[in-house]
Write a structure and sequence with these properties.
This protein is α/β, with parallel strands linked by helices. 30% of the residues lie in helices and 11% in strands. The chain is globular, with a radius of gyration of 19 Å.
Length: 329
């Protein structure tokens, strides 16, 4: 994937860049991690800028269920608001009941999933145009720098990045709630968004599309640990939906040390995204929030250069990326 323009054209509000990874049925944990990360980084920025200043603007990429977490932080959803949404929309209500007949006939194991209801609770009727940074009159959604970037997988075009690639779908804009349904459409499990029947989960090809933010530093949130470094589940895609090709390799590139040092790992068992949570939504949210805040507050300013621009932590913008140092385990 090629990099997308993600920075505002004004210098008035600082930016923090966050990639919320695959979440699946552990979505509540990932939302807690995302909100915790933004709160912790905002606190560090406020500590290092004693004069009244705007809080950092999250520019978020969300993969699969992580797209819902990304939308929440791009909008500035508060901890209390996000926790309330998690409690009001428990995972079993969002997914609905399994229907094996539907899996055979409609390629949707959870045909009554309420992903759009959850998405609409978070983003309302907003379209991608509403997430534009420094919008210019007459500018289309795909032309603007955006605070929300959502990878999706097209059966026709391969991986696309919304809103940048909206024209490839014949669209000038799109309700973000529909984009979130499409981005979380696990092959064989969840139904399509209306009008986006050939669009699937953004993690089908790239599980950790970290290069979207290149060359800027960014924070990555990962449900698992560094390993495995690859996922072979894409080989089953043609069995799950006839429109999909087999994808031999879906890399999780955490063998890269710099990338590991820029990632908060939740260390859930591999495959947890596909299993029902065993804890209450509020407990999952609080756990994710604590994972991120502890990780960020345990880092020194120099270590934080792996994930934020220097001015976020009160250092000159001229600080070189070579000043970043390795974190400790």
């Amino acid at each position: 994937m090629t990099a997308a323009r993600t920075d505002p054209v004004t210098a008035e509000r600082p930016v923090v860049r966050i990639l919320a990874g695959v979440a699946g049925r552990s979505l509540t944990l990932m939302v807690g991690m995302a909100i915790g990360a933004t709160d912790a980084l905002a606190a560090i920025h406020a500590r290092n800028h004693p004069q009244p200043a705007l809080a950092p603007q999250p520019v978020a990429v969300g993969v699969s269920g992580g797209a819902i977490a990304a939308a929440a932080i791009a909008l500035g959803t508060t901890r209390a608001q996000a926790r309330r949404i998690a409690i009001d929309h428990p995972e079993q209500n969002v997914m609905g009941a399994k229907n094996f007949r539907s899996m055979l006939t409609r390629h949707a194991l959870y045909p009554q999933a309420r992903i759009r209801d959850l998405a609409h609770t978070i983003v309302g009727d907003r379209t991608f145009a509403d997430f534009a940074l420094d919008p210019i009159p007459g500018q289309q959604a795909h032309q603007a720098a955006s605070s929300l970037l959502i990878p999706v997988f097209s059966a026709v075009h391969g991986t696309l990045l919304l809103p940048r690639d909206l024209p490839r779908l014949g669209l000038s804009d799109l309700p973000v709630a529909d984009a979130l349904v499409a981005a979380t459409r696990i092959p064989g499990a969840l139904p399509a968004a209306p009008g986006l029947e050939d669009i699937f989960d953004g993690g089908c090809q790239f599980r950790v599309p970290h290069d979207i933010f290149t060359p800027h530093p960014a924070l990555i949130l990962d449900l698992y640990g560094p390993q495995p470094y690859d996922s072979r589940g894409g080989l089953l895609f043609p069995l799950l939906h006839p429109a999909l090709p087999a994808i031999r390799s879906r890399p999780r590139p955490f063998h890269n040390q710099t990338l590991r040092e820029s990632t908060i790992f939740a260390h859930q068992p591999y495959g947890a995204a596909l299993t029902s949570p065993t804890h209450a939504p509020e407990e999952l949210f609080d756990t994710g929030y604590a994972i991120s805040t502890r990780w960020i507050h345990s880092r020194t300013d120099q270590q934080l250069l792996n994930i934020v621009d220097p001015h976020i932590i009160g250092l000159p913008d001229e600080t070189m990326t070579t000043d970043r140092i390795q974190t400790t385990a």
